[in-house]
Amino acid sequence: MDCLFCKIVEGTIPSNKVLENDHVVVFHDIHPAAPTHVLIVPKKHIASMNDVTAEDMLLIGEIHMAAQEAANGLGVQQSGYRLINNCGQDGEQTVHHLHYHLLGGTRLGALTS
Ligand code: 5GP
Ligand code: ZN
Q: Where are the active-site residues found (predicted)?
């Protein structure tokens, strides 16, 4: 399958990984939008949030636990951070393998003002 994040998961495309377990990898975004910007990616290929099924419920929990662990390891757990999933065209999803952005290291601003 021609999927960038599957290739990063397999290691055929290099990445700067901060965490890896049986279910999830976490690596630095190549174009960081904040002082801390990593991507939490399930090893299983799921194209988008719309493709998550009941079968993936434990995996979604693993993603949240990995986000928490990565935030702790990167030193932003106490100061706070934001976890974002972009889905589909209006969500500006560009890589069609489910992933969550973890952003932190600065005040990120309110979503609405
Ligand atoms: P999306 O826009 O789909 O929510 O997020 C995709 C993210 O993947 C973007 O923030 C982009 O910078 C990041 N990205 C794209 N290609 C690569 C790559 O080859 N390596 C890494 N580490 N990040 C990438
Ligand atoms: Zn994939």
A: 99 (tele-amp-histidine intermediate)
ipTM of the complex: 0.99
Half-sphere exposure of 22 (CA within 13 A, CB side): 2
Spans of all domains in the chain: 4-104
pLDDT tens, position by position, 48-58: 999 999 999 99
**Any idea how long the chain is?**
113
Question: What CATH code would you report for 4-104?
Answer: 3.30.428.10
H helices present in the chain, as ranges? 4-10, 57-73
Are 68 and 77 in contact by the 8 Å Cβ rule? The answer is yes
Active site residues: 99
**Contacts with 61 (C-beta within 8 Å, 6 or more apart), sequence order:** none
